[in-house]
Amino acid sequence: MANFSKSQVPQFSVEVYQNEFLPEGGREVNAIVTVTSTGGGTTGGIPLADAAPAYEAGQGPGAAVVLMVDCSGSMDYPPTKMRNARDATAAAIDTLREGTRFAVVAGTHVAKDVYPGNGGLAVADARTKAQAKEALRKLSAGGGTAIGTWLRLADRLLNSADVSIRHGILLTDGRNEHESPEDLRAALDSCAGRFTCDARGVGTDWEVKEVTGIAAALLGTADIVADPSGLAADFTVMMENAMGKEVADVALRLWTPVGVEIRFVKQVAPTVADLTARRTEANARAGDYPTGSWGDESRDYHVCVLVPEAGIGQEMLAARVSLILPDPSGAGTPQTLSQGLVRAVWTDDMVASTSINPQVAHYTGQAELAQVIQQGLDARKSGDFDGATAKLGRAVQLASASGNQDTAKLLSKVVDVVDAATGTVRLKAKVAEADEMTLETRSTKTVRVKK
Questions:
Q1: pLDDT of residue 1
Q2: Phi, psi of 281 (to 5 degrees)
Q3: Which of 38-47, 68-77, 327-336 has the lowest average pLDDT?
Q4: How many CB atoms lie within 10 A of CB 386?
Q5: How many Cα atoms occupy the beta-carbon half-sphere of 115 within 13 Å?
Q6: Scanning 53, 196, 210, 319, which has the fewest C-beta atoms within 10 Å of its C-beta?
Q7: Which residues, in sequence order, are bridge partners of residue 261?
Q8: Nearest to 63 by CA among 133, 140, 121, 142
Q9: Residue 39 to residue 263: CA distance in whole angstroms
Q10: What is the pLDDT of residue 60?
Q11: Residues 6+ positions from 170 with CB-CB distance below 8 Å
Q12: Cα angle value 41/43/46 (rounded, 5°)
């Protein structure tokens, strides 16, 4: 576990970037909210005396991780794929922090707890890690794919331990063919808010929207590992990131005055994720949006509200954004970790009221970039090549203008770029399936605005 001295107690901060000026009658207010946690891993700036007893003992919060490994029949084609999956899971186990609770689940059309195998979790140390890796050697491929059953077993295992951080890592190489989409959705709904989960697709025979949907529902990351030999490195990084999480269940609370409507709340960095529909009511004027687990990191959120019309010279508080940490027992008052204010001021200064805040402009473009990539790839798959060319051309233009070089490189494998500035492109006649899937999987990744 991580050790913290009193000088290392971390803090959350909230910064608001916006143009608060509106013309007479103007209603739409946009703000980018940057949330940063610093200091090693967090009580959110809560005094140590008020934090969990583990902090008093010099220990970080408890963590539990379940690794879900696809063992369906397709994992035997080629045979190296299953070996790579075993090696990757072993590498992740080696990365576990001492004292972390963990389990390994073999996933087919059913889910099996293969280690520790007693319906609970093992505690990571040299002995249990060696035992887990020995259990991995016995994994073999056979059967179907029913990911919802894997998630439900992971949920039962993770919630058998009294820990702060609960995380899953899921690997699949195929489509979820042995349960209905409704069954998977029901499993995701039941697991949402109970643990976070990173999802990976290996090879090219899986469904991008299934894997990215799992990660989105469970506030984790999604990616493709087209070459199975890259799994061990990817799993190691994933587990290192999971071990860096120190506080769970942080919520972005949005309070708005009477008459203010919320248009949307989106995470816009490091990836685009629409949180609008995930609001839970906190009280008559405020609602909470889940953000998952945090370590040392920074994320950006785009908040858009509609305020009542007002005359020149008037001003109002359009929204108050707070970071909230629930009381672990569920009985006490939630901790407010930090907060920021979103304002609206009506002016007849046309220059002031028509200028777009650079942060808002940048992330509006990044959200559009993610959208037009998805639309362009869908159009290409359906045979609408004119529509695909237009959408992917716009994507090239947005990626170039915002400096999103990683996405620009992925786009160049799907289209020939004639002029990036104008978005003039030609669809490539032949595109490797892995390149198209990589672009689709990573389409929501954004670059930070230069402040």
A1: 31
A2: -70, 130
A3: 38-47
A4: 9
A5: 28
A6: 53
A7: 306
A8: 121
A9: 34
A10: 46
A11: 68, 107, 147, 150, 151, 154, 197, 198, 199, 200, 214
A12: 140
